[in-house]
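Q: What residues go here?
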């Protein structure tokens, strides 16, 4: 488990889905619930629904469109916002994420949420899990028009909040996003070893990963 040089960190940038929240909600919605409801509402089999949806998802992965509920509502002719509410009971905090957030706020770190989630998804999750009080800002990539995978997101973030990448920690469960942050110059990067509680650990490749938020606050004053 990585040991963080907290004296060298002023700003903590945190992803939401798979990092602070269990990714099971999102995986279940997009891979199981949405295909099921698509099949029912369009009068096709579940198998056919999956055959139609999975290539679409793959084609838009990593783009802002992939995270946009308005795009998918129009593309699939489905009320995606309303459908997401049908499985909202699955939205859950990852173990000890709130303990970690409270500790870094108490230590005087600047704490900012940066998520690719659409504002409607963000609002739905904040209704279920009280995250907002821990953060100075809650930023959706849709605010800037660029997904976190895009270098222009980081330029926009810098212009907006004026952080020092060399003195910042960023935690995210998506490797292409971590690589984008690294190219921008963010010095301290951590992946998440098991973003979905129902699936096993993932290979985080060149990135150190955290699986226990309690260990990250060791040495934090």
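A:
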């Amino acid at each position: 488990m990585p040991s963080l040089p907290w004296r060298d960190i002023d700003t903590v940038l945190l992803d939401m889905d798979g990092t602070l929240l269990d990714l099971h909600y999102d995986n279940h919605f997009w891979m199981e619930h949405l295909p099921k409801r698509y099949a029912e509402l369009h009068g096709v089999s579940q198998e056919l629904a999956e055959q139609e949806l999975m290539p679409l998802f793959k084609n838009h992965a990593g783009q802002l469109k992939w995270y946009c509920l308005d795009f998918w509502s129009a593309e699939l002719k489905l009320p995606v916002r309303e459908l997401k509410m049908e499985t909202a009971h699955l939205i859950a905090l990852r173990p000890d994420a709130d303990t970690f957030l409270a500790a870094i706020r108490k230590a005087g770190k600047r704490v900012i949420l940066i998520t690719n989630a659409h504002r409607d998804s963000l609002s739905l999750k904040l209704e279920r899990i009280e995250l907002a009080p821990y953060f100075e800002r809650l930023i959706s990539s849709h605010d800037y028009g660029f997904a976190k995978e895009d270098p222009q997101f980081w330029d926009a973030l810098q212009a907006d909040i004026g952080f020092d990448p060399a003195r910042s920690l960023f935690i995210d469960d998506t490797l292409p996003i971590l690589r984008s942050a690294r190219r921008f110059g963010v010095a301290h990067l951590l992946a998440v070893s098991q973003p979905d509680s129902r699936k096993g650990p993932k290979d985080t490749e060149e990135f150190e990963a955290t699986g226990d938020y309690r260990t990250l606050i060791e040495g934090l004053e």
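A: Context that may help when evaluating the design: Residues 67 and 117 are 6 Å apart (CA to CA). The radius of gyration is 18 Å.
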